Amino acid sequence: MRKILIAIFILVTVAGNAQLNNSWIDYNKTYYKFKVINNGLYRINQSLLASLGLTNTPAEYFQLWRNGQQVRLYTSVPSGPFGANDYIEFLGKKNDGVPDNQLYLKPGYQLCDSFSLHTDTAVYFLTVNPFPGNLRFNDVNNDVAGNTLPADNYFFRTVAAPYRNQYNRGYAVQVGEFVYSSSYDIGEGWTSYDAAPGLDLFTNFTNMNVYTAGPANSVSLTIAAVGNALNARNLRIKFFNNVVLNSNMSWFDTMKRRIDNLPLSVLQSPDYLQVATGSTSTNPFDRIVVANLAVTYPAKFNFNGSANFSFELNPSSVGNYLVIDNFNNGSTAPVLYSLNDGNRYTGDISVAGKVRFVLPASLDAARKFMLVSEDASNVKTFTTASVKNFVNFNETANQGNYLIISNPVLYNDGNGNNYVNQYSQYRSTVAGGGFTAKVIDIDELYDQFSFGILQHPGAIRDFIRFAYRQFASRPQYVLMIGRGVTSIEYKQNEANPDMKKIEMVPTFGWPASDILLACEPGTNIPLVPIGRISAINGTEIKNYLNKVIEYEQVQAAQNCSITDREWMKRILHVVGGANATEDQDFTNYMDGYKNVIEDTLFGGDVETFRKTSSAAVEQANGERIQQLINEGVGLIGYFGHSSANTLAFNLTSPDIFNNQGKYPFFNISGCSAGNFFTFDPLRATGGLSISEKYVLADRRG
Predict the structure, then answer these.
(1) In what order do the strands lie in the sheet with 138-139?
(2) Less CB within 10 Å around the terminal CB: N or C of the chain?
(3) Is 68 left (phi over 0), alpha (psi -120 to 50) or beta?
(4) What residues does each domain of the chain span?
(5) DSSP state of 613
(6) Architecture category of domain 155-299 in CATH
(7) pLDDT per residue as tens digits for the range 147-202
(8) Model confidence over 636-663: pLDDT tens digits?
């Protein structure tokens, strides 16, 4: 039984003024989308550029963006049009967890940003900018022949083990069971499996190439971990049998710490290190998880046969002479990219098995480099790209006060009918409220407000924040048309072909909360009312739209006779406890609601039904309930046990009712009854959750 706990958050006013994700876009430009799913060296050849209509674009005009930040690139000619063999080259990086940080209740709650919570695919946007400011890597001479410096003996290497064994749900409150917030909370995200007292987590590092003659106290440990149970404990870390950390981390506390000045002797072996991480709690059921573990130490310039190798150098007032062993450059001279200053050095391979570089002096605290093989086998070449012209939501013509966010998959019911558009048209009529209704494509929001990252909740949240701040007329309502799946289940099942059939518009967090899509970061008060029609096809949208029109026509009708409107005052209360005690407790709550409903402010008539047996699903009183619903009730209130598909009372399906034109609001106080955010392949073939059955039923429900 899953429950949702949404904490009361302190409103952080700074968050409301933070820069939005679309601030990097120039709406006067055309962009070209390139998808990157692995780290490495990427090229865009002239032939692909020509197919995009960029044949005569000067090399110096190209500009590249990722996650709202400009990316430094290299062009095979520094200026002028490309020849047939020319290209754009850049260091591509798959999507990681950096864009996810904005989702957390507080930024510090994210333990590790090595992996995305949503998709590994990053999108790079190429555009043409004829003005200064385009970032470049520039070729610089690698003067090995004139070198007078001695070769560096070592560099400080960091080996890291970010974990992706499980999705840790993070901070919980224990109320008979663990209850989680829909917010991205303390310690939530990818982690190791649970470690427990006596069951340490073992992490092995190999091919370390330790420089054993390095400084004596030159080893550092970085740890990001979190408690996963309500117990007192210490987090203990051992290098082999040497304890290097033993520190308190009780309850759901986190530990993000770097420990410096560990003796070089703790490594023991030049090529192998075993790290044991565990809990010292006296409770045998205690649990902790590790998000990231990293060790920094002096290492020899042996790059382990890699074709791509990143490293850092400390400041140097005289420069560096690097002699690198065991780098897999094939038969081509590799290239060293200096990420700090944009220099690009071609390696000297005149000595067999060695790659040599002479670097200038630099006082940068940490000089970051990437050595890459230019061998054809190591270069990833794009074969396709898509053209993107962003919708400028700063223009009044693209704004509205009733926003419908949907998926283009739903714009055709198979017979050419676009019921999403018809819903928008209805809301723009006098009968539908006289709104300025606009349909917003979720694909547009992905590209513009989450950097092209699919399934990212920031796409919707940042758009709503933008609309609330920038639109000439603030949105009054946001309606999402399309089913959603939580990011956890989406990530676990994204390769399943059924996913595209049942996931249309994302939700926020786990358990799912559409409300948090409309909130400023760190708050739970929506800027605008938000709702969802959990449809996966046009027919379901049509069914709901027809009921809305029919219901609102009754509301707007001038004749208000008792015969026409009495049914709206009838209220049906259903109690479904598991035993007599629960049944009485639940009834007491419902009677409190009954007193309010039957008071003079509403003047309703409440009829209550209680379970009379211990059966999981109660069939009794079914005929009377069916009669009431068929005659019309304004509200059905249910308090009892439930799942996503079943109620404890026989109200599981609306098919048995005939209540056209008299549609009640259905309020269920029960576990998971509204949870239609699961990955359920049966949904594609008609397997609806109980809430979807009632909402999407044709002329009933």
Answers:
(1) 138-139, 343-346, 335-338, 367-372, 308-313
(2) N
(3) left
(4) 1-27+393-556, 28-136, 139-152+302-381, 155-299, 562-701
(5) S
(6) Sandwich (2.60)
(7) 999 999 999 999 999 999 999 999 999 888 889 999 999 999 999 999 999 999 99
(8) 998 888 776 777 666 778 888 899 989 9
